[in-house]
Amino acid sequence: MTTGSARIGSSLKVAIIGAGVIGLGIAWRLAAKGAKVEVFDRGAAGSGASYAAAGMLAACCEAEPGEDALVALGRESQARWPAFAAELRSLTGVDVELRDEGTLVVALTADDQARIHHHLAHQKKLGLPLEWISAAETRRREPHLAGKLAGAVWSPQDHQVDNRKLATALRLAAEAAGAVVHEHKPVAEIAIAGGRTHGLVLADGTKVSADVVVLAAGAWSRGIAGVATEQRPPVRPIKGQMLALKMDPAAPLISHVIWAPGVYLVPRRDGRLIIGATVEEKAFDTTLTAGGLLTLLEAAWRTVPAIEELAIDEMWVGHRPGSRDDAPILGPGPAQGLIYATGHHRNGILLAPVTADAIAKLVLEGATEPAIRPFGIDRFAPPRAAE
Predict the structure, then answer these.
(1) Under 8 Å between Cβ of 240 and 226
(2) Cis link prior to 277 (omega < 30° from 0)?
(3) Residue 182 forms part of a structural domain
(4) Within a domain: residue 95?
(5) Is position 59 within any domain?
(6) pLDDT per position as a tens digit, 35-65
């Protein structure tokens, strides 16, 4: 793919569709290298999946069979997170609260234990730093866990950040580097002629010229016109209901990220306890349902019974951008100058550093980092018929 790297001295113009953590991270890296960057979002910056997420950096404990390349990408991004967070804090003054207490994957019953051990065997083959710990050791780390407990997998390198603070910091960093963020400016189509990208057309008819267009619109990516339907990224919205409870910040019920059957719990420094998340194929439905929230609360209560005394702080719905294989779509699109950075599903926060770095390098140098090579859109192309 030929990008505008040769034109960087004459202000390469890049238009990014989507102002979530992916789009903003790419904007920051590009603007800092001298590109003229504009970001367009259908809503407020950081208000989509970036706002709804829980901020877990779970490259190890979420590893499943068939996802070896995705695990490698997650581990690469995980390694970049400390420097990424430190750089953001230095530039913007915003602490994204990268916490290093680690994660516990809790088994309440013998059946839970058997299922977890099945996954653990595969994870160990990948060389991931995970270990099974006893019920007594699990309770030593988290005294408020349920009375009946089989044990847990301890993941010392799966951490968390505050995703909402991350979105704020990335916007500040991007704008400080010279990027312009346009909120409430939905993009109708990508302008393509003669096999190359020329910019965007906004929903109000405004034309925006650009040498390169980066599609980072998350769950809304497939709805952007300009590319033939069969060549658009196969990304769909996967609904997730979530809620937050209020703990005492001075005496929180839990201090680690906890995965348990049917639920995860993520403690914040301000005392909020994030509980999530349902997984629903309901398109862009934004309804909070009694059944969805009951399922989460019951699973959380079975894991940490003391939550029943906590006040409800917030309830919300988000839409994960899920691809056909639940992995991101990163790399060149079907037209020269069009680049895809979408479909991150449940890993958008985890993969923000590696995506920002790799896509910026692709735009500026035309070089594809080895870590993102398995995630091009060409993997979804139908097989060619035999000659």
Answers:
(1) no
(2) yes
(3) yes
(4) no
(5) no
(6) 999 999 999 999 999 999 999 999 999 998 8
Helix axes 352-365, 68-92, angle to 10 degrees: 90
> In this structure, are 146 and 168 located in the same domain?
no
**Alpha-carbon span 191 to 86, nearest angstrom:** 37
Q: What is the pLDDT of residue 383?
A: 72
258 in a structural domain = yes
Q: Which residues of the chain have pLDDT under 70?
A: 1-10, 384-387
Residue 126: CATH number of its domain: 3.30.9.10
On the 0-12 / 13-18 / 19+ scale of CB atoms within 10 A, 305 is middle
Distance CA 37, CA 178 (A): 7
Render pLDDT for 315-339 as a digit per residue (tens, 0 to 9). Answer: 999 999 999 999 999 999 999 999 9
- My answer on whether 146 and 269 are in the same domain is yes
For residue 307, give the nearest of 278, 277, 273, 268 by alpha carbon.
Answer: 273
Instruction: Report how many domains make up the chain.
Output: 2
Q: How far is CA 385 from the centre of its chain?
A: 36
Strands (E), the chain: 13-17, 36-40, 56-57, 103-107, 131-133, 151-155, 159-160, 180-182, 187-193, 196-202, 207-209, 212-215, 236-246, 257-260, 263-267, 272-276, 311-322, 329-332, 338-342
The CATH code of the domain that includes 47 is 3.50.50.60
| Domain extent for 338 | 5-52+164-234+325-380
